Amino acid sequence: MRPRRRRVDRTGRVWQARTGALVATLSGHTGRINGVAFSLDSRLVVTASEDQTARVGDARTGEQLAVLSGHTGAVRDAVFSPDGRAVLTASMDGTARVFSCDVCGSTAQLLALARTRVTRSLTPLEWRQYLHQP
């Protein structure tokens, strides 16, 4: 008897909590989705995937608005900045990245939030490598 293979669905879905109705389907990933987060205004959703990308989509329509790439390992998690204009990703490649885009905007608030949660100072090498700052 052959072992049964698990089918991996590479889509995200947004459901209406009160009614259980499907609101939107988020597609585009070629690997398993590891994490999902909504912007504070619930307008946007970001998905983190084994395919080394994060994708930003419209939570009402499922329309893909941005593909955030650059990691060399699976993206394990992604979160929005408090203003919803930047996304921070964490990857199995050992890096975290801050993405700014047309739908996401500036990174200043996300960096301020990250500074309140980092448990140690970054080394000069880490500043250059991860934040692209001298």
Strand arrangement in the largest pleated sheet: 3-4-5-6
Class in CATH?
Mainly Beta
Shape: globular
CATH architecture: 7 Propeller
Give the termini distance in whole angstroms: 59 Å
Strand content: 35-45%
Task: Let me know the average pLDDT.
Answer: 82
Structural class: mainly beta
Number of domains: 1
Order of helices and strands: EEEEEEEEEHH
Q: Report the biggest beta sheet as strand number plus sense, adding barrel if it closes.
A: 4 strands, antiparallel
Radius of gyration in whole Å, from Cα?
Answer: 16 Å
The CATH topology label is: Methylamine Dehydrogenase, Chain H
Number of helices: 2
Identify the CATH homologous superfamily. YVTN repeat-like/Quinoprotein amine dehydrogenase
Q: Number of DSSP strands? A: 9
Low-confidence stretches: none
